[in-house]
Amino acid sequence: MQDSVMKAWWDSSHMAGGNTAYIEEMYEAYLEDPQSILENWKVIFDALPKVDGVEVESNHTQIKADFKHMASLGPAARFTPGAAATQGDVQSDERQVKVLQLINAYRFRGHQHANLDPLSLWIQPGVRDLELKHHNLSESDFGAMFNLGSYAVNADKMGLGDLFKSLNRTYCGSIGSEYMHITDTEQKRWLQQRIESVEAKPVIDRDEKINILKGLIAADGMEKYLGAKFTGAKRFSLEGGDALVPMLKGLITQAGAFGTKEVVIGMAHRGRLNILVNVLGKNPSVLFDEFAGKHDDTLGAGDVKYHAGFSSDFATPGGNVHLALAFNPSHLEIVNPVVMGSVRARLQRRHCEDGSAVLPITIHGDAAIAGQGVVQETFNMSQTRGFKVGGTVRIVINNQVGFTTSNIEDARSTQYCTDIAKMVQAPIFHVNADDPEAVMFVTKLALDYRNKFKRDVVIDLVCYRRHGHNEADEPSATQPLMYKKIKKHPVARQIYADQLIAEGTIEKHEVDKLMAEYRAALDHGACVVQEWRPMTEHSVDWSPYIGHDWDVEYDGSLTVEKMKELGNALINYPEKHRLQSRVNKLYLDRKAMVDGEKMLDWGMAENLAYATILADKTNIRITGQDSGRGTFFHRHAVLYNQEDGSAYLPLQNISADQGRIDIYDSVLSEEAVMAFEYGFATAEPSYLTIWEAQFGDFANGAQVVFDQFLSSGEAKWGRLCGLTMLLPHGYEGQGPEHSSARLERWLQMCADHNWQVCVPSTPAQVYNMLRRQAVRPMRRPLIVMSPKSLLRHPLAVSSIEELAAGVFYNVIDEVDELDPQHVKRVVMCSGKVYYDLLDQRRKNEKNDVAIVRLEQLYPFPQEEFKAIMAKYEHVTDWVWCQEEPQNQGAWYCSQHHIWQSIPPGSNLTYAGRKASASPAVGYVSVHNQQQKALVEDALTIN
Fold this sequence. Notes:
One of its GO terms (biological process) is tricarboxylic acid cycle. By secondary structure, this protein is an alpha/beta fold. The strands form six sheets. It has a nine-stranded mixed β-sheet with strand order 5-11-12-10-9-6-8-7-13.
């Protein structure tokens, strides 16, 4: 009897084979949202086979086979009889599923029908998934009640008509929400609850509305004032994106209430002057002086006003928050990783691991976020160990036009400029900038998401640009239709004021009064930000490093006993931590070095430098693509257990009260990582911060950072930075891309004592160079031409006593016992070629050629060089020898310094490769011939 009942149920059930298409649709809905389908279906799908405990979600062919197999079993199929539907319920179930699919369609694609463009110029293609008929529904179904599944309104059931209106309000109003690409169910549920429960439009009280209006009045008033006072002056006006001002103030206020202590902002040009005055509290009178061309002669080279940074404190309900707007050149998105690095340094200084104490905000242009590769690099770093900052709030000022590009298809290859953010599954909120209440809603939502999930979030502020690329540009030449519309379009302040007047929130005369008060404040020239406070929250002290130059005295010496103590700590690791065989041999050699049985090699000397710095309670940060072991297998500061892959850092276990050391193998990026480290070093002077290139020439991938920040940041902005760059350099026949770190480029940028360029040639030199960079109370960048083959060169060794002496020699005199009076030629050089010259001279038994090494090429050590040259005053034959081609290396940039130091009447000649467009040849045989020839040329007296 029971079997016959089951068979009858099965034969009539929608599980039968004729309904497989329906079953597939139901299963698709289940995959998208298991809670969106009826419980009896969920029980069935939950029971489907799993592979290694993981649900099989992609092989739909196999799913079909499973259902067909169930159908063939008939009553024996494993269904719950109590969950069976009768024939009369089948149509109702189908419609219910269609309704749930409609809800999911709006979650996935509602943003494509949202009212995002203030100018109403967007022509959005129709989305069939959002049409009732696509789901076999129609207006005739509007009166029917349906279960809402996980749709997060305050109801279990709703009429289809009301649901359809609710979905459109929630997903197709002034906000277009994209979050269904996120794979984490908890994050999606959280976002759905926040968005759907208020239909993307929460209740806002009068005080907040008035504050929003004040922000819009300030944004508009500032631009109008500047436009009238400095007509035609370039200012990169915010007009059209006015909502950014109340948006940022609301974001900072909410962050402070959450407990945030610092906010670091990075942005390009558009709206920067407005934000400086109306958010950070820069005195308008100071800005007006800058427009008038007044400046302080003590500020060095200076920079244009729309590159300027600024710092202040901002009052919030949770206490004062320190604000820092990063300096930024015209290279747009490059400031983003700089901001991340600065935030990471501030978080570590505050001992905050989750990112809650410091908030990064980056403001992008629509064309730039899609077009600049550093954006992708920065997104890619956002969740990595060495570079995470607890999530960034990213705001796009979406002008809908990049520079002068009028067609989206010319600006990018995707629908939205923000699609790049999907690579890290960041939620994206597109919002109409002319609806400031919607802007404030997504602002609060974005910050709450960031604080809860510690991940990036994007707000796409869809607006327009009232003027051209700058105020001297004529935009209608390339966008005639857009600018015809813009000329007639009211400003956001007017739109919102009219809205508040119409709803009775404020009277027109009150609006006029607020506008007049703001204008009067600008006339007065004092700070116009009520929340501005004098700075007390900034926690770093730069005073010990200010006012010092290269000749500042310091003591880098240590006793040999202390060196050996640190060396023993350095070679100690857990007994059960099994090393790889080559690494084990290296550590046995290091033990012999500490015991005095062997001279110290490069890797041991470098690690000892770090150990001594840590023992002084100074912190160290090292990043690079192979920084843990070193590209050339020399450093091995991180030891990997061959049994379980666990890592051990001897440098983290030097002593109980040592400094902190972080060593991270970075993502495969130069530009973003290098910019990150610059940002870190400019925010944290107490660290020895090091970035190591895999090969020196890879630094050209980060050239904008060297050009715009590192070489000129102090001259332009007064920003000190102690960042150290290790750039492997040396001609070993590895071809054009792995020989030269392009030394000539760094030397070309040398001026105003902006940085140091060093080419250390011994382990003692690298040890004392790193010690000097950390111990000396001066913070300027250090560019190092670090070695490759020298890392294991038999002559490139040092004694522990040489290290302990604590002296870096900018110039090193001849090391063999030559009689200076018998010297007829002096060869000067830097780097690896020294050992080729020394070896060949010894083989030739030439005692009339002295070899002098320049270990620091800039600032040129004139006095030390002259002191050494004094013993060769009788010599008139002077030679500069280098491995690099004549138009590269140090020859052209340094010879004028050498001319000033050699005796009058002397002749200075060049020995090296001839000029070349390529850094090096590609054939080893040709390389060897060239190397032999340049060495012979340098040593042969004519």
